[in-house]
């Protein structure tokens, strides 16, 4: 597409001239008149200007703009996931998830800039804000819902959004819609449930994995029994019993479902199986991108938790731990309670490490399964299963380096 703007650089004249028919200019295109005139300093309006209020406003506005971009990416990723996923689309998902991760990294670090404001400076204008608070950030709430934070997992104080957004009908509607639409977590779950190799009448990964775990437990029991010291032997045997219980929680669907209903586990039983399978066979070409997706989902959860943590520390520094927030919560105490696992949407992916087994016990792929994991999708072009691992590695490294 050619640029409609016609610039005329005329050396014989002072400065550059712009064609009369010129189209939109920078400021117009970006609507800078709106953005750059949107910093209304209340301290100035009260004839007691506080220099740092400007930074306070700009920081919040920058956050809101980035939230908007994250939601934009998230919506597009949810769209891609909502149809049965072609493997060619996973690269696009990867690119956009990676973009969200990079934005979140900026947001985590941005807290530092606002921390250059001292609590005394903040005190000078804090009174004017009341009852405004980040608590009323509609976009933050939408972002959480679209990722998959469920109302029942929220801290109690934060469950009733009508108290916060009650008078704003359109905000209420947007929040309700975001709770009803399938979240990223739900869509990822459906995608994992379709992981090739889980079929009972096919490769039956789960059956094979279960037998491998039984073998691991047997081997460890035999080794513990050989222990000369009775104390050490008993310690190892009781540790083994605990490990068995942990495995029971994934092999027994009832135990798994009970954990889901208590909010301690989030994925369906089948989706968990898919995630474990992808983790084990991530070196197979067809699982390489799915594995990257799982890693980026954990990065998103980690970074939001880090943002929460940085925000809580900043809040304590600015208002201490016993002042109420301008939004009416207990302030620091409330925010501290949001740091737990309840806000981690992909908590199951973090906990996968609990269920790993030594490489030597990972069920070998059948030749049918091996060739099915070699074929299709964009990775076909970068690795051909005949040992051309180098190119595939380079591709994966480039993604890892970009994260
Ligand atoms: C001086 C700096 C800040 C202070 C003292 C502060 C204080 C607080 C407090 C006390 C709360 C709890 C709700 C309430 O007001 O009662 C809160 C919530 C929140 N703040 Fe801040 N904040 C600051 C900066 C920011 C910035 C820069 C953002 C960026 C958007 C932000 C976003 C939020 C969000 C999203 C919540 C809701 C969190 C949740 O409910 O899980 N805050 N803030």
Automatic annotation (TrEMBL):
<dbReference type="GO" id="GO:0019442">
    <property type="term" value="P:L-tryptophan catabolic process to acetyl-CoA"/>
</dbReference>
<dbReference type="GO" id="GO:0004833">
    <property type="term" value="F:L-tryptophan 2,3-dioxygenase activity"/>
</dbReference>
<dbReference type="GO" id="GO:0019441">
    <property type="term" value="P:L-tryptophan catabolic process to kynurenine"/>
</dbReference>
<comment type="pathway">
    <text>Pigment biosynthesis; ommochrome biosynthesis.</text>
</comment>
<comment type="subunit">
    <text>Homotetramer. Dimer of dimers.</text>
</comment>
<dbReference type="InterPro" id="IPR004981">
    <property type="entry name" value="Trp_2_3_dOase"/>
</dbReference>
<keyword id="KW-0823">Tryptophan catabolism</keyword>
<keyword id="KW-0479">Metal-binding</keyword>
<keyword id="KW-0408">Iron</keyword>
<keyword id="KW-0560">Oxidoreductase</keyword>
<comment type="pathway">
    <text>Amino-acid degradation; L-tryptophan degradation via kynurenine pathway; L-kynurenine from L-tryptophan: step 1/2.</text>
</comment>
<dbReference type="InterPro" id="IPR037217">
    <property type="entry name" value="Trp/Indoleamine_2_3_dOase-like"/>
</dbReference>
<keyword id="KW-0223">Dioxygenase</keyword>
<dbReference type="Pfam" id="PF03301">
    <property type="entry name" value="Trp_dioxygenase"/>
</dbReference>
<keyword id="KW-0349">Heme</keyword>
<dbReference type="GO" id="GO:0006727">
    <property type="term" value="P:ommochrome biosynthetic process"/>
</dbReference>
<protein>
    <recommendedName>
        <fullName>Tryptophan 2,3-dioxygenase</fullName>
        <ecNumber>1.13.11.11</ecNumber>
    </recommendedName>
</protein>
<comment type="similarity">
    <text>Belongs to the tryptophan 2,3-dioxygenase family.</text>
</comment>
<dbReference type="GO" id="GO:0046872">
    <property type="term" value="F:metal ion binding"/>
</dbReference>
<comment type="function">
    <text>Heme-dependent dioxygenase that catalyzes the oxidative cleavage of the L-tryptophan (L-Trp) pyrrole ring and converts L-tryptophan to N-formyl-L-kynurenine. Catalyzes the oxidative cleavage of the indole moiety.</text>
</comment>
<dbReference type="GO" id="GO:0020037">
    <property type="term" value="F:heme binding"/>
</dbReference>
